[in-house]
Amino acid sequence: MNRTPLRRIGVLTGGGDCPGLNAVIRVVTKAAILKLGIDVLGIEEGFLGLIEDRVRPLRYDDVSNILTAGGTILGTNNRANPASFVTGYGADGTPIRADVTDRVLATVERHAIDLLVCVGGDGTMSAANGIIRRGVPCVGVPKTIDNDLMHCELTFGFTTAVQTASECLDKIRTTGASHHRIMVVELMGRNAGWLTLHAGLASGADVILIPEIPYDLDSVCDFCIRRAEAGRRFTLIAVSEGARPRGGQQVVDRIIVESPEPIRLGGIAQKLAADIETRIRRETRATILGHVQRGGAPVAFDRVLATLLGHKAIQMAALGEWNQVAVWRQGRTDMAPIAAVADQQRLVELDDPLIAVARALGACLGD
Ligand code: F6P
Predict the structure, then answer these.
(1) Whose CA is nearest to atom 11 of ligand 1?
(2) Ligand 1: distance of its center to the CA of 291 in Å?
């Protein structure tokens, strides 16, 4: 198939949603129509829409008035990797998997799609990488509230999630302070502590526990006691869903067998609160912020970042810089190979300046 010049592109949003996806869909569609004069097709629910042939035209008017809206007008899905797609279940409930990449290729051919703009995290980039290997050009736009994409210093959606989480921490602070309680608040982020570290610093959390630093329960309890002895009877603890005690395990909320990444973390806040209460007999309450962190309108910064990265992706598409993902590096847009981003996680380094500043402020990091 001759794909130059581009005549028609598809856009999909995959993985967990995050604020700013609509801003990308908007700029990709508008710039493709206005600057390149080409057609845009919207793929519903990420790669699932390619597997099931759910594709619709996106016209200029379809993407008007969506800049500020949370979620994604295309829908998304974090269970559909064509290379290992669940097509049914055995008698014992075991999922039956098949490589359905041919169905994806058939949809691409049927709609004469020359290139796919894949907006997603490492899982979506992994799926994109699979179809790149079968000859379908892609450009990627990275998104995640976890901010854990390799080669990308900042993903859109993250700043909004930090803002939301920080507002929640602020509210927990006032009720916790009134009751002189220890308040444990669990934040998302999978195996990366970025969200907890940023929101914890933004809200002045007293204890910040992230997956990259397994915590020592004695250290956390001693810290709470020392605060109480100093007259600070209230302690705010921000803990990542992926945090774990030293020598212990992460707390798994559920296993989603259909998902390429089946483990869903969650519940460390209750465990930690119970452990603290048992150990030092001070009233301790747990709150899990959950999906509220992914919802709502993007903050202005994320609208701009999403728009810049979506525009960069269209520029890359037009210039033939394919199979790359648009990234944010050193204060400007750049690109990295999709293969280098797929199935990777960018974790917090222990020498990160945010760790140093948290320590300088006297926060307990659990070690
Ligand atoms: O990757 C984004 C994220 O919100 C993670 O922080 C969290 O662990 C996961 O997705 C939750 O996934 P789900 O929406 O399937 O529960």
Answers:
(1) 264
(2) 8
Write out the residue range of the structural domain in which residue 163 sits.
158-294
pLDDT in tens, 236-254: 999 999 999 999 999 999 9
Any ligand 1 atom below 6 A from CB of 250? no
Non-local CB neighbours of 147 within 8 Å, separated by 6+ positions: 154, 155, 158, 189, 192, 194, 195, 346
Q: Which residues form the catalytic set? A: 146
**Domain tally for the chain?**
2
pTM for this structure? 0.96
Check if 265 has its Cβ closer than 6 Å to any atom of ligand 1: yes
Ligand 1 pocket check for 145: Cβ under 6 Å: yes
**51 neighbors 69 (Cβ within 8 angstroms):** no
Asked if 17 and 128 sit in the same domain, the reply is yes
**Could you tell me if residue 259 is inside a domain?**
yes
Q: Is residue 355 part of a domain?
A: no
Query: Which CATH number fits the domain that encloses residue 193?
Result: 3.40.50.460
Q: Contact 257/86 with Cβ under 8 angstroms?
A: yes
Using one digit for the tens of pLDDT, what is the confidence trace for 24-66?
999 999 999 999 999 999 999 999 999 999 999 999 999 999 9
